[in-house]
Amino acid sequence: MTTLTNSTTTVGTAWEIAVDDAPVALSAAGDLVAVAGAEGSVVIAEAATGREVGRLELPGGALSVAIARDGQHLAATGPTGYALWSRSGVSALTVETGAWSSTAAWADNGRVAVASGRRALVLEPAGETLWSTEPAASTVTDLAWLRNGRRLAVAAYGAVRAHEPHTEKPVVTYPYIGSHLALAVAPTGRWICSGNQDASIHIWRTRDGSELTMSGYREKVSRLAFDDTGYWLAADGAPDVTVWDFSGKGPAGTAPRSLRCHETVTALVWRPGGAGHLASGGQDGTVALWRATAGRPQARLQPARTLDGDAAVTALAWSGPDLLLAAHRDGRVRAHRLPSRTSL
Q: Which residue of 179, 202, 233, 294 has the smallest Cβ count within 10 Å?
């Protein structure tokens, strides 16, 4: 069951929904938002109002959810397979592969890449498999598109491998011995970054394959995100969110900005529009909003504002630049309306 509350008493809160299943992932695109629950329920709602417009069940539980950029299609993944949903009204397609499906990523051309065990599958929105990669050394942990959907980066133990349409074998391999937990590709296409189990970020420059490792994090780095410009990378792995400057020649020999609010960072996402605004969530339930590119390297920044919640933040997403969506472990999803696209 999903209940909707239109809030008029909480400043900046547009709506709130409560879902039965503890949310683990959020996605927003077009005028839709999707919430994936740990037990496999996926609720699709209008971003402006929170009104439910669809739902599906993923047997075995859910790990991720992704809405295509045009807001017309959705992919959800879980421990035993994946599901596809279309706004056209056609019933959802659920595929139980028996393989761990960690994530899905939509390309600009409307096709979706789905991690399926040690392979990545590239599918039409209706579910037809167009091509797949050869098996990696271990389970695929993350995916990202480059070159407007003409190249797919696939992270698994020991390397990030880049594939092009209908190429089972990689066209480029970026080796790094270790377990890659998160993948971020700069919108400019210049950089590929992996967050790793060994408490590091590894970076490759796509032009020449040159490499850089940023180590010294307290914990594994499992969340990475580039902003719209491709000049700023945010990462977890410590009580501080670190923000690295990728402009010019990149971050080699530089220090990051540090954003201190949470003891444990559980979510982070850049505000669309390239204004340098970042949202982060913590185990304590707080959502922090940052002018994340302000100050100088090594600066420790304070949040521009905080939004308090009663339970740990499990996921964050932006629906456009003015609506921030926050999922909490107690099953509540709140939409916070920001004053304008240039202020916090």
A: 294
Q: pLDDT by residue (tens digit) across 11-29?
A: 378 999 999 899 999 999 9
Asked whether residue 341 carries a pLDDT value surpassing 80, the answer given is: no
CA 92 to CA 98: how far, in whole Å? 18
CB atoms within 10 A of CB 294: 12
CA distances, 306 to each of 2, 274, 343 (Å): 26, 20, 14
What element of type H or E holds 106? Answer: strand 104-106
At 134, is the secondary structure helix, strand, or coil? coil
> Confidence band (pLDDT; 50, 70, 90) for 342?
low
Percent of the chain having pLDDT more than 70?
A: 96
**56, 65 Cβ separation under 8 angstroms:** no
Of 18, 22, 24, give the one whose Cα is nearest residue 50. Answer: 18
Backbone φ, ψ for residue 150 (5° rounding):
-95, -5
Burial 57-90 (b: 16+ CB within 10 A, else e): ebeebbbbbbbbeebbbbbbbbbbbbbbbbbeee
Rounded Cα distance between 77 and 311, Å, is 24
